[in-house]
Amino acid sequence: MLALSLTQPGQLDLIQLPEAAAPQLGEALVAIRAIGICGTDISAFLGKMPFIEYPRILGHELGVEVIAIGPDVSHLKIGDRCSVEPYLNCGRCHACQQGRTNCCEILQVLGVHCDGAMRERMILPAQKLHPCNALSFEQLALVETLAIGCHAVNRADIQHGDDILIIGAGPIGLTVLEFARLTGAPITVLELNAHRRAFVQQQYPEVSILPALHDGFAAQVIFDATGNSGSMARSLHLCRFTGRIIFVGITKESVLLDDPLFHRRELTLLASRNAVSSDFPRILRLIESGQIKTQPWITHRCAFQDLPTTMLQWIKPETAVLKGILQV
Asked: What is the pLDDT at residue 40?
């Protein structure tokens, strides 16, 4: 079967893989129908993702169809449409025993630490499949990226009276925005890119969207979704005394911590990594009910075989890609 391999930064190659085996105990064989292209894929393509080794088959934002199930799988049937939870955890380590499966000590994320789903079919653990036949494959492929924002907002523990600043309105910042707005807290978004500001203004008219912050601006809860070390360091200076900062983006670089300021304001600094299983059914329900509208998210589409050339265009800022979908 066909697959796409990122053989080195900047080079995607079509390759042939052996056909997927029959599913064993607790497994399912799925046909990959839609793949979301995310910031992790772009960073890997550019050689900036710290967890990627080459060659790597990318792909972890998935809408799939179940085509066979192994023994002892009861929550799936052949033909089910599913979103995929791409975090393969051990279930035994300290983090897993705490229920923090997103932080498994030997976590393997599809398309990052191990080969992912840029292929026609693959075997997956059945427990990582979340069925929802009411949604399209493209909608199901958005669930994992939305889960990143869902988990980050859960980490922030928004309280009555809090106000929120989201730095960066790329795909990850927008997933934070989707769930931050459900808290009812007032939200400001800081974004330098005019195309992204226009998108936020159109889709989230209740949100204050700014290209720069006035002197003295401060917020109680700050999400930095830029993956830029300078922005992440500055976020502490924008946070009120007793406030909370959540790093949602990731960088290879060290982030300079102004320790006297950090202590004087008694700030709380949190990382947010991936998502947990319970986030997925919640997001499916929110999309089904219309509380999350997926139509504006998908701005670009591409056929599977065309991605090696299309990716070279999608990484250019002027193409204004919010979410590209690879159709398998």
From this structure: 86
